[in-house]
Design goal:
alpha+beta, 2 strands, about 70 residues, about 50% helix
Length: about 70
């Protein structure tokens, strides 16, 4: 359980510091013989830093309350 607490705390800290990311995909618009037209589409993934704080606090609580061997 201590390992789970550490993992949750680290993931929570990362989510607080980095609140999202973007990635680009290519979509084929036209494909006629040798002519091909592609469109780049931007996608963003965002989350609230509150979720990171909850994970961070939960991980610390799990780590601190587990007696570990």
């Amino acid at each position: 359980m201590r390992n789970l607490g550490i993992v949750l705390a680290v993931v929570g800290l990362i989510m607080v510091l980095i609140t999202g990311f973007n990635f680009v995909t290519k979509k084929k618009v036209v494909d006629i013989g040798n002519i091909e037209i592609n469109k780049d589409e931007n996608h963003s993934i965002q989350w609230s830093p509150v979720i990171g704080v909850i994970l961070l606090v939960g991980g610390v609580v799990i780590f601190a309350t587990n007696k570990g061997r």
